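Appendix B. One record, verbatim.
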Amino acid sequence: MTAPVTAIIPPRAAPVGWLAQWRERWRDWRNRQVADPAFQRRAAAFALTRPVVRRQAGELFDLMAGFVYTQVLLACVRLHLFDRLAGGPRTLGEIAQLTGLPVAMAERLCAAAAALELLDARSGGRYALGRLGAPLVGNTGLHAMIEHHATLYADLADPVALLRGDRQAAMAGYWPYAAVDAAAPVSALSPERVAEYSRLMSASQPLVAQEVLAAYDFRAHTRLLDVGGGEGRFLAAVAAQAPALQLMLFDLPAVADRAHAQLAACGLGGRSQALGGDFFNDELPRGADIVSLIRVAFDHPDDRVLRLLRAVRRALPDDGTVLLAEPMAGVTGAEAMGDAYFGFYLLAMGHGRPRTAAELSALMEAAGFGPVRQLKLNLPLQTGLLVARCRSV
């Protein structure tokens, strides 16, 4: 017997303790002081507080100028600048020739990129990779995400209109499966409609797969079903870790066809199946002892996520395991990623929201799993990871 939907409603917040109340009052007092122009002038002039004022002013300016910074990054990616500098420093003349820019414009771009530590200015007017540019060499996943953000930025040109629902976001068309009220079923999406987003997910999937595989060992299982598995990049990564594991993938028919071809190209055709359907309306294939949901839940509202998790529970044996990996809200040190970035990304997409580990755990428990464990990851900025066994019914 499955738990009722009301089980996913978070409990009422506990009363705030005296220490928390004191901290809130102190923050309110501090903010009143900082908002006072006279206090700002005194703090900027005083030697002990001047470094704090300068740092905060820089942080505020970075928020204001963030879009310009991302456009510098996009220009570097579109001009393949990081890959062109992978062999070592180059002069401005060489960079201009390689990128097709006038020398003056090459200098302006390189100076901007160096200020952002994407490049490193060297002697003799040369430029080399910077500490933030070096990880982008050959990183097709990050390149694809950076290029993809041009669509997101267009939707965010008027954020108030987006919040009020006064404009149609282009992102909603980019992710056609998210249109839950579409006239035609999502399982009928054509190969052309799924091609672009499937390529993006495939290119960016290794960023998540390496985190999951570093935290969880799939060799204890016999068959993995990856629901919403795209072109099979996650399955291919797991296959390398667990050579005896049988592989199954379930996604929209047009996406599953792409996965079938990709898995065969990786030499995994003999141990894999790619099955097509709509995981909100069709029963999931059985036979797996572990099901993975990689970057699936946050695209959808709670009721649909609960429906999906209950379908996963029905597809698993009583000792089965579910593994859920996606970016999460409320991650210490990565709060801006969860609530700011993904909050507005999913708003433009038209559906879904970033959830905390506790909120996702509540949904999993309501679907018949538990207890839910959150595994530690090397880079929780990329994704969070929850694992649970089927609960006896």
